[in-house]
Each structure stands twice: as structure tokens, then as C-alpha cells.
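FAQ: What does a ligand-bound record look like?

Like this one, built around heme C:
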Amino acid sequence: MNLFQYFRNAKIRQALPHGLLWSALAVTALAQADAPAVLDQARTLFQPLPDTMATADNPTPPDRVALGRRLFFDKRLSLDGTVSCETCHLPGLHGMDGQPKSIGVQHRPNARNAPTVLNAALQFKAHWDGGRDSVEDQATRALIGPASFGNPDYPAVIAKLKSLGYEDDFRKAFPGEADSIKPENWGKAIGSYERTLVTPAPFDDFLKGNANSLPSEAQRGLKTFMAVGCSNCHNGMALGGNAFQKFGIFGDYWTATGQSAGDEGRFALTQDPNDRYRFKVPGLRNVAKTPPYFHDGSIDDLGQAVRLMGKLQLGLDLNPDQVQSLVAFLNSLTGAIPKPFAAP
Ligand code: HEC
Ligand code: HEC
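The answer part, i.e. the structure of the complex:
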């Protein structure tokens, strides 16, 4: 293990006192790297997307996926008939809503920015603070979320589903279950649909060995992404979505993003002081298509988001060339909108 690897592996939470050391190590790493080495290193940190995100708990049989798709786009299940999942997760906007913070039923504001539903099922938890265990849990609880669907309680929703003629579809989607219309199955049906929303991108072809699938600027960006330590937090299939980290290791993030005060993140959920300002590291798949950025939607420009990540998470002043190549790399994570991601 060389010096660089030692520091890269050291826990980022035990953050280094200043950015200088990081810069020095990064320069060394860049000088050492060559094209096949980049691929080799990338393969230790990232994996291509799977064909489906189905699990043993929630497989993706066609009837269940079809039901989930109908439910995803059905506004009638919300309190006033104006909101569906699509309201804040639009196919045309790569699965989010383009707003800093979403607006739910009866114009109720949400506290945070809507992440994309594309590839979301890869993440170890859902929501910025990890407050939802899975996409299934997320969908189930959205039904009675005051700022999303706004329904008073689950019995009201079940009655609505029955009155809208969904009973047959639920029976087909959950064969053998006596009482198949229930909140968990609403969550499972939508979750099953979400587990099909995978968006393979040029970066996946690159990881599979096709070096030509990434333009040279994106390859340089990938090299930088690994060398400066972005990949300490953003790694795996989703390039994130597998850990919580403090936002603002090297300074108050809200000052840097021009907000007056900071959302305390996971702390509000756990009351553990170590969780203050900790958020789920978001996956970066399709990130070039999902501005505005961060949990508060405070930053519109991807280059600016990247610069702030360098500053706040790594104590680094990235130069314009590094930022530009990092953005080129992030662009290689954009995939096509899956065909089934459209109203049935
Ligand atoms: C009013 C807008 C709104 C509606 C309606 C809505 N969402 Fe969301 N969604 C959000 C916001 C905002 C978040 C982030 C919440 C947070 O982290 O505090 C989110 C988070 C998520 C996440 C977690 C993504 C991640 O990366 O953590 C998933 C998955 C998701 N929504 C799916 C759905 C589904 C499925 C429905 C319908 C059942 C739905 N949403 C309805 C706004 C909405
Ligand atoms: C110490 C962990 C860590 C490191 C290192 C790190 N990030 Fe992040 N990144 C995060 C967290 C946590 C967030 C979510 C911040 C928030 O609450 O909005 C994030 C958010 C982002 C976002 C915004 C995503 C979105 O959908 O809003 C981008 C883009 C990003 N990071 C890119 C990078 C790049 C490029 C680097 C390297 C220069 C990097 N990150 C380094 C933890 C990290």
C-alpha cells in the first residue's frame, strides 16, 4: 500500500486538517495513472448497473410492475386528486421535478429537494436522511405524507383503491394473498415498478471494457474523481447511496451555498449528535440531468456543485480544468429514460 492509498482509505470522517496534503497526493496519483490503470482502478470502486434491481423480497413479475406503473401515475389516490408520484418525479426531467423543493398536495411545501426515482432502488436507504428503509417503505409512507399525497390514514386510501376498481389488479399482482389490497402491497407494487427503472450509461460500457465509450475528457475526469477522493464517498453501482456522511467537513455548507441556516439532516431523525448535518451520500447516476443540486436544491450549476464538493468535503480548491473534466465524467453517467417510465 503506497502513501496515497493509505490516505485514500483512511476514513474521511477523521478528516485531514487541511487540503494541501490531499492536493499533493492527488498530483502524485495523476502522474502515475495511465489508461488501462484507470480502468483497473475504476473496477475496484464502481460496478456496472444490473439489468434489474429486483430482490427476493420484491421481484418484478409483469403484473406487479404494470400495477405499480398505473399507481405511480394515478392522481386520484391523493387527498385532493391533484398529486401522483409523477408530480415530483417526472419522466421528462429524469425522474425529479426541477424544483429546489417540491410542492405537494394543497401546495404544501416539502422540506427538501426531490431526488430522482431512476436507479433509486440501488441505494441502501431512501430519502436524504435515510428515513425510509427502501423504495417500498418510501412509497407506502408517501400515501399519508402530509406534503405528498396528504391522505388522513391508510383505511381512507384502501377504500379509495377499492372504489377505483383496483381489486383485480392487486389480486393478479399478489396471487394467493387473501386480502391483497393493503398499504404494504401498494408500496410493493410501486417498488417493483421502480426496480425496473435502470438507466445504463456510457460509463457502464467503459467498466465492461469498452475504453472508447468515454471521451478522453471524461476519462480524465474519472481519473480526477478517484485521485482527489470523490470516490471515497461516491462509489459502487450508483456512485453513492451506500453511506451517510457529514455535508460540510471543511466548513459550514449553508454559508458556502448561500443559505442562512443549515438543515441538520439525520440528526433530526436520530437525535445523535454525531448525525448533525449528516446526509445520505446521493447516487450520481443521471446527475447532469437533475439540477438543482443538494438536499436543499440550493445550487443550479453542476460545475458549481462539484467545486463546492471539493471545498466542503475534501478541503480542495479544484482548478477550472479539474472541474470541467469532472463534469464531463458526470455526464457519462446519463442514461436514456427507460421506455416504461411513461404513463400507461
Ligand atoms: C410532492 C412531491 C412528491 C411526491 C408526490 C412524491 N415524492 Fe418522492 N420525493 C419527494 C421529495 C421531496 C423527496 C426527498 C424527501 C427527503 O429526503 O426528505 C422524495 C424522495 C423519494 C425517493 C427517495 C429517493 C432517494 O434517492 O432517496 C423515492 C424512491 C421516491 N421519492 C419515490 C416516490 C414515489 C414512488 C412516490 C409516489 C408514491 C413519490 N415519491 C411521491 C417528492 C415527492
Ligand atoms: C465525504 C464524502 C463526500 C465526498 C468526498 C464527496 N461527496 Fe459529493 N456528496 C456527499 C454528500 C453527503 C452529498 C449530499 C449533500 C447534501 O446534503 O445535499 C453529496 C452531493 C454531491 C452532489 C450533488 C448530488 C445531487 O443530486 O444533488 C454532487 C454532484 C457530488 N456530490 C459530487 C461530488 C464530487 C465531484 C466529489 C469530488 C470532488 C464529491 N462529490 C466528493 C458526500 C461526498
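Follow-up question: can I read anything off the structure? Yes, for example: The chain has two domains: 3-49+199-331, 62-194.
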